[in-house]
Amino acid sequence: KWKGEGTTQNLENIVIGRCYDYIRIVNPAVGEKNCSQIWEAFKNAFINKDPCSILPKDYELFINLSLHTIPPNKSLFWENNQLLVNSFTDRGRRFMSLADTLFGFFGDFLNWCGQADSPGLDYESCPTTMECENNAVESFWRMASITYAQHSSGVIHVLLNGSADGGAYPQPGFFADYEIPNLQKGKVSEIVIWVVDDIEGPDIDSCGIHSVKTLETRLKTLGYDVTCTDN
């Protein structure tokens, strides 16, 4: 019935397993977390509801249960280069991108949605963001992005793809719409932008021009100390 792919098979086992993987292996520094309780809070955000009426705030309990400190100077924001970011952060050792936090790790690359009149997950299809903005996955990442930005501090790094169609700094986009507005001015000492082109890809965008210039101007206007480096 929807155009998007359905809920990832074995979702419960995957996310509870990821939760334990995170607290035991990836980042034991976060301390004890109740992974089955986190799963319940996650699931209750969207089950038994119209899959097009899920809001970021529905994930509030999930976020509160899975939240942990993001070390200063380790935040890495990005657009259009997920796989590069995942290898670059080295699972949180070098930087801690959203996907390296417990709440981001939990949902990374997965899909899910519920159904209005049943407690089950919909494995057949889920709404895309084109079909409806307030779907379970989109709202999850909005809430996760807001939370990540609010808890980021020190030197903030932003990794942008200079070969991306439509520019390195997309608007609308998660960074533009949910992360920049939620950075805590008093906690951020500097914002460092890196613009990286795809290997053998076109060099469409760089520091000081096009959409990167738009971003630099926006951040400077907000009063941040901004540095930009190409490749």
UniProtKB/TrEMBL annotation:
Question: So what EC number does this one have?
Answer: 3.2.2.6
Q: Name one Pfam family in it.
A: Rib_hydrolayse
Q: Which UniProt keywords apply?
A: Disulfide bond, Hydrolase, NAD, Transferase
Top-level taxon: Eukaryota
Question: What GO biological process terms are annotated to this protein in UniProt?
Answer: positive regulation of B cell proliferation
- Molecular-function annotations in GO: NAD+ nucleosidase activity, cyclic ADP-ribose generating; phosphorus-oxygen lyase activity; transferase activity
* InterPro entries documented for this protein: ADP-ribosyl_cyclase
Alphabetical GO CC annotations of the entry are: plasma membrane
In the record, the note on similarity to other proteins reads: Belongs to the ADP-ribosyl cyclase family.
The molecule here is called: ADP-ribosyl cyclase/cyclic ADP-ribose hydrolase
Q: Which organism is it from?
A: Edolisoma coerulescens
Q: What is the lineage of its organism?
A: Eukaryota, Metazoa, Chordata, Craniata, Vertebrata
Which gene underlies this protein? Bst1
